[in-house]
Design a protein that fits this description.
Layout (H helix, E strand, L loop, with lengths): L10 E6 L2 E2 L3 E4 L2 E3 L1 H13 L2 E6 L5 H7 L4 E2 L23 E5 L16 E4 L2 H8 L2 H6 L3 E4 L2 H10 L5 E5 H7 L2
Parallel strand pairs: 1-5, 1-6, 8-9, 8-10
Antiparallel strand pairs: 2-3, 3-4, 7-10
Length: 176
């Protein structure tokens, strides 16, 4: 860091979507997750204080534009083509995957006829469903839930839905 000169101390306001388990989430009243840990480490290295603010991913641009947050960080999928904000090159890419339990008949796209699906309430998941006519027309009830992947996996494990739509990182975390 010697080549960038002295960095004045400050408090970085970080907007995190707390429904993006395991990237950013809440445990009691504490922010946790992979992205949260990275933000903490960056601020530690810079000698800055850090303040997390819960936001919804779809409101990231509004929060940034209003000055409520300095950065949106925490499992957010932002438009890399945006011209009104600086989007730092992503250090991780996410895929959205369809997950069912092994002990069900829902093992392929063709077997999803009338299957109950749960997904996060984020518009990105709805856009994923709407972009695939075969998937959209195969499914039965689609339930949008609050609480992110953790809530979706709970519904799946309790047998209340047949399949879920989540980020691959959540599958890798919960699918242990």
């Amino acid at each position: 860091m010697d080549n960038i000169g002295a960095i004045p101390p400050r408090t970085l306001l970080v907007g995190c979507d707390v429904d993006v388990y395991p990237m950013s989430y809440m445990v009691e009243d504490r922010f946790e997750g992979f992205d949260v840990d990275i933000a903490r480490d960056v601020c530690y290295r810079l000698g800055w204080s850090l303040y997390f603010i819960p936001i919804k991913a779809e409101n990231a641009y509004i929060e940034l534009s209003s000055g409520n947050i300095d950065v949106a960080w925490g499992g957010l999928a932002l438009d890399l083509e945006a011209t009104d904000h600086t989007v730092v090159y992503p250090y991780m890419t996410q895929e959205i995957v369809l997950v069912s339990r092994r002990d069900t008949k829902y093992r392929s796209l063709s077997s999803l006829k009338n299957a109950k699906l749960a997904m996060d309430s984020s518009q990105l998941f709805l856009d994923t469903i709407n972009s695939d006519d075969n998937l959209k027309n195969s499914l039965g009830e689609i339930q949008r839930v609050q609480g992110g992947a953790e809530a979706c996996f709970k519904l799946l494990n309790e047998g209340k839905v047949d399949c879920i739509l989540v980020y691959k990182s959540a599958l890798l975390y919960f699918g242990k």
